[in-house]
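User: Show me a protein chain along with its predicted structure.
Assistant: Here is one chain, sequence first, then structure tokens.
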Amino acid sequence: MEKKPLELSIIIPVFNEAENLPQLFENLQKVMQKINKSYEVIFVDDGSQDRGGQILKERCREDARLRVIVLRRNYGQTAALSAGFAAAAGRVIIPLDADLQNDPEDIPMLLKKIEEGYDLVSGWRKERKDPFWSRRLPSQIANWIISRISGVRLHDYGCTLKAYRREYIEQINLYGEMHRFLPIYASWSGARIIEVVVRHHERRAGKSKYGLSRTFKVLMDLITVKFLGRYATKPLYLFGAIGSFLLFLSVASAAGVLYQKIFLGVSMIQTPLLLLTVFFILLGVLLIMLGLIAELTVRTYHESQGKPIYSIRETLNFD
């Protein structure tokens, strides 16, 4: 008899959350008893130095639906989520924080939206219970910038609690702090995205792992995401455009040099425009050449790995 595919995978990164794990298990158990779906819960121990790892192993022995991935050291939330995504077998994947600030009671609501036809349901911590100056204000600024630059308008990119159809994330490789940009990646593949308000609780135990330094990292990663979204398959469009603009400036600068020489009698070596002309020409040519090298790199990447430059939603009448 063919085994039915697993319906739901819950991914929970864990780093020094031993004090919160017992309550998390209890909350999850109450919610999963209400959901009539096959499921697994994957805990990713991201190099915890407290008793969290031991607690996870003990619980796994009691329930076969609980699974644990232990990383060799602390790699960060993005790497932990990536490890969980790679191991997940469910058709729908829901990541969840282990610090009890996300509420498992919101999981049925996310699943309902998936059943309505959405491909990605993003949580919005509208009533966020975090310090304003160090957490909420930087987050609001970052979310505004990300929404404007990416074109995917969400209030809360940083909320871990989301629901994904697995086909929209299984081909994505994550780096840096890029887990928060998964809605952008999914939108490139044509995912139908909706944002819903979820609960958010104050941290009861343990220490927050986030700080202001993450805001800078997120903004740097955003530049990478924007470049990948617009120019990943045609980098020459970016480098070539900038290089062509610099060559245009070199022509204008050269015209200024000739005008001063012919009509004003100013020696070419007495004006900085000559040096500026040479600088613009060299920089323009270098950027165009860099674009060509990037083109070769991109084509080698796609062709060597057989990666298409498009994403198909469905096919009809194919074997």
